[in-house]
Amino acid sequence: MAESKISAKILPNGPILISGELHIIHKDGREETKSNVAFCRCGHSNNKPFCDGTHAKIGFKDE
Ligand code: FES
C-alpha cells in the first residue's frame, strides 16, 4: 500500500494550503474528502474555514 503524504504550506499573507487527500469533518457532522484545500488564516473569509480570497481584498499581512 502506498503511503499518502499530506503537506501544509503557509502562503505569505494568505491561507494555509493543504496538499493531499484530506478527510474533513464539519462541526455539524457533515463529512467530505478534498484535495488541495486552502484554510483561511486571516479570519475574514465568508466561507470559513476555507479561504475565499478575502485576504487579498483586505490586505492581510501575516507579519
Ligand atoms: S486567508 Fe484567504 S480569506 Fe482568509
* Rg estimate, integer Å: 13 Å
- Count of domains: 1
Order of helices and strands: EEEH
Helicity, in percent? under 10%
Question: Stretches where pLDDT falls below 50 for ≥5 residues?
Answer: none
N-end to C-end Cα span: 41 Å
> DSSP strand (E) fraction?
35-45%
CATH class: Alpha Beta
CATH fold name, please? Ribosomal Protein L9, domain 1
Bound molecules: FE2/S2 (inorganic) cluster
Largest sheet: 3 strands, antiparallel
Number of alpha- plus pi-helical segments: 1
Average pLDDT taken over every residue: 93
Can you name the CATH architecture? Answer: 3-Layer(aba) Sandwich
Shape: flat
How many DSSP-defined strands? 3
In terms of structural class, how would the helical and strand content be classed?
mainly beta
Biggest β-sheet: strands ordered side by side in the sheet: 1-2-3
Short note summarizing the structure:
Keywords: 2Fe-2S, Iron, Iron-sulfur, Metal-binding. The chain is mainly β.
Could you describe the 3D structure shown?
This protein is mostly beta strands and 63 residues long. The chain has one domain: Ribosomal Protein L9, domain 1, CATH 3.40.5. The protein is built from 1 helix and 3 strands. The chain has one helix at 54-58, and strands at residues 7-10, 16-25, 31-39. Strands 1-2-3 form a 3-stranded antiparallel beta sheet, with no helix packed on it. A hairpin with a 5-residue loop joins strand 2 (16-25) and strand 3. The protein is flat, with a radius of gyration of 13 Å. The termini are far apart. The relative contact order is 0.23. Bound molecules: FE2/S2 (inorganic) cluster (FES). FE2/S2 (inorganic) cluster is lined by residues 14-15, 40-42, 44-45, 51-55. InterPro entries: FeS-contain_CDGSH-typ, MitoNEET_CISD. Residues 13-61 form the Iron-binding zinc finger CDGSH type domain. Pfam families: zf-CDGSH. This is CDGSH-type Zn-finger protein. Keywords: 2Fe-2S, Iron, Iron-sulfur, Metal-binding.
